[in-house]
Amino acid sequence: MTSFSLPALTLATSCPKDADVVVFGVAESAGSPVLVGLPDEVERRAAKQFGQPLLAVARSLGADSKPGSTVVLPGADGRRLIAVGLGNIDVTPEQVRRAAGNGVRTASGLKSERPLRVAICLDAVEPEVVKGAAEGALLGSYAFVKVSGAQAAESIAALTVVSSSGKPEVRGAVETAKTVAAAVCLARDWVNTPANVLYPQTFAEAAQAAVKGTRIDVEVLDEKALERGGYGGLLAVGGGSSRPPRLVRLSYAPRGAKAHLAVVGKGITFDTGGLNLKPSDGMYTMKCDMAGAAAALAATRAIAQLGLKVRVTAYAAMAENMPSGTAYRPSDVLTMYGGTTVENVNSDAEGRLVMADALARAGEDSPDLILDVATLTGACMVALGERVAGLMASDDQAADHVLDAAESAGEAFWQLPIPDGTRKKLDSKVADLRSGGNRYGGALTAAAFLQTFVPGEIPWAHLDIAGPAFNDEGPYDYVPSGGTGMAVRTLVALAQSLQS
């Protein structure tokens, strides 16, 4: 199983003289474009070389303050310059994160005889803005390492974030950015790995390897332990595959922690739809159906590496949903962990079944908040598109807590309701409840189903990341094609907020 290695990133108060590429900003100030972050010396030499102000040169080549705008300028003084749109001059960390990502992603596509040294000069000063620049640069450098006998070519040798601030808080922000970006890229790698390489057993092994050397305890339940424990959802969904299911439990319990966060991730390593077989076009990208588990595991590692004073228990419910003579059927009644019985409505609604087992188990840990993350429903994509994730919660306070964390992390979530009467759609004549309702409000019905397995006294939030977890189109900002690592940054930010 191959993995991406982040380039080295350092913080400097001035642009390194050995930088091959300098990324600078174009922002809008009082209705006019201005250059942001470009060192005076570089600007003077470029203006002398081009015979006119660099802003005029950049504008003539299409440089713009519009976010997402990226223009490569002719070489100046042996360096290549990349102008990236920042938007308004009063930048947010997310604006800078996106601009840095665009700049580094563009730099990685430049032709060069050797890997490039890239300087990010965006006039970042405040710790959160510098952190945004560092995260964007690292995430923009990501490239999935192909499954190949040939060694992957390295495009970026080193990154430098330039900031005039020498405060310890800024240096700390950069170190945090490195840890968080590494976790996001780990989740991306797992999502991008083909399902014949990453399946429940190997995913569980990869999770164990990823947290080796941290203060995280690991427990892995195989199919025999799952049967002894009564995990009927995982056993049913994984029963059609020759590769049996797993439940991975990570436990991070630092001294001094006052809050306890439980995170449950959906880990369907491949989803054919089971006996309710998906059409071929809808099946091709289903190696990404474990993105929730990837986010939960990778974020927990980052939380431990950062030494955050919050207890975290993470559950990754792993199974492969396949059709066979041992596959579970529509109309089957399953007994979930804890004893609740479920009438299976659709074998392609398998994620909620494995999540139900893990949520019921997580409730026994009596955490202060349970959060689950899953590529759960196409209905959420219909409602919110491919770049915004859905959030549903037991109460507005829990929802606001998660939304605040998402905003600080720069990830897009939108709260959806679980209206009164939604649970009624799940009434069953042959079991405690059905696994699904009618075709309307599918994301809401799925959330109502999951909520059934959360103890009523524990606040709970559900993140449906079906849209933004996998980018099936071209890369943009700091987001690559394929796995995106969605929700990792929000989970880390949530843990940071729970320390206080």
Features of the shown structure:
single chain; 15 helices; seven-stranded mixed beta sheet; alpha/beta; Aminopeptidase; 34% helix
Overview of the structural elements:
The chain is α/β, with parallel strands linked by helices and 500 residues long. It has 15 helices and 20 strands. Strands 8-9-11-10-14-18-15-16 form an 8-stranded mixed beta sheet, with helices on both faces. Strands 1, 2, 3, 4, 5, 6 and 7 form a 7-stranded mixed beta sheet that branches. It is elongated.
- Rounded Rg: 24 Å
Biggest sheet: strands, sense, closure? 8 strands, mixed
Instruction: Give the overall shape, derived from the CA principal axes.
Output: elongated
Q: How many helical stretches?
A: 15
Question: What's the rounded overall pLDDT mean?
Answer: 96
Question: What is the CATH-assigned architecture of the largest domain?
Answer: 3-Layer(aba) Sandwich
Strand order of the largest sheet: 8-9-11-10-14-18-15-16
- Considering DSSP H and I runs of 4 or more, what fraction of the residues is helical? 25-40%
| Unreliable residue runs | none
Measured between the Cα atoms of the first and last residue, the distance is 38 Å
CATH level 1 class label of the largest domain:
Alpha Beta
Number of strands: 20
What is the CATH fold-level name of the largest domain?
Aminopeptidase
- The CATH superfamily of the largest domain is identified as Zn peptidases
**Which structural class fits the helix and strand makeup?**
alpha/beta
Total of domains: 2
Strand residue content: 15-25%
